[in-house]
Design goal:
Helix content is about 35%, strand content about 30%. By secondary structure, it is α+β, with helices and mostly antiparallel strands. A hairpin with a 5-residue loop joins strand 5 and strand 6. It is globular and about 75 Å long.
Length: about 300
Amino acid sequence: MRIIKEANAGGGCPVSGEELSRINALARKELTAEEVYTFTVRLCDNEVDREWERFPRETLEALGEMFVGKSGIFDHNWSTQGQSARIYKTEVVEEPGLTRAGDPACYLKGWAYMLRTEGNAELIAQIEGGIKKEVSVGCAVERAVCSICGEELGTCDHVKGRTYNGKLCWAELTGAKDAYEWSFVAVPAQRRAGVMKGMGPGLKELACQRPETCRELEELEKAAGLGRRYLEELRAEVLRLGAVCEPELDAAVARSIAGKLNEEELKALKSLFSQKGEKKWAGGAQLTYMAVKESPSERDGAFLV
């Protein structure tokens, strides 16, 4: 199944030694930093797009490996004349909040390079000026799974974009098979895909130029990871308590609300739901047994010899 999805592209960024090594791994001759122009692109994300389809994180991660070395062209026109740039590195980047599907938001980021030639000068100027911005990916996946029933879309009765019992139907694109190319386009299916701005060297790249700051950054990344897991556990607990105390609240709506709350707001909501739960179940068990009244002598009678 061939898939085409659109995204965004960003301005140029400095070329570090590591970046140049990755680029030269794809080049026929040894290029210098002065010979190349690099920029980053938001290739695709895990949100439901305009075509009522989405890539789960697992698919994005698989596509990331496949897109390294792939050409950038125009309007998915498979012609060597249109080849303008090439992806030399990718990474799945996490974002705040949850998707419509209820999982943490993330996107596939790509680093691309092109040669600083007279022929490319106009395209570089258009990228820098924000004219050439939106991009689209061409790839292949094994299955398009219905979000309602879990069956292959087309084999069930559900239609993408329609709502069934309050739940939106979309296609989960799973089983990445191949990445063909990425193109500059006019209107992307994925609303946020394209060239990204402010592409200077990343924090990690700057920090790792000195071993001591690199180690400190690694510790900070570990702490941040623990913090994210704590927030996810807190968010899950709030959703669990909310389902007990407010069963009429739609689960998707609850996940969307919880995904936008910070730690203090989540703790306050958890406290509120806990108090409501205690009041709700304060009456004790619904089934009780009638106690038979006995006199003290009758109670003690079983122990008399």
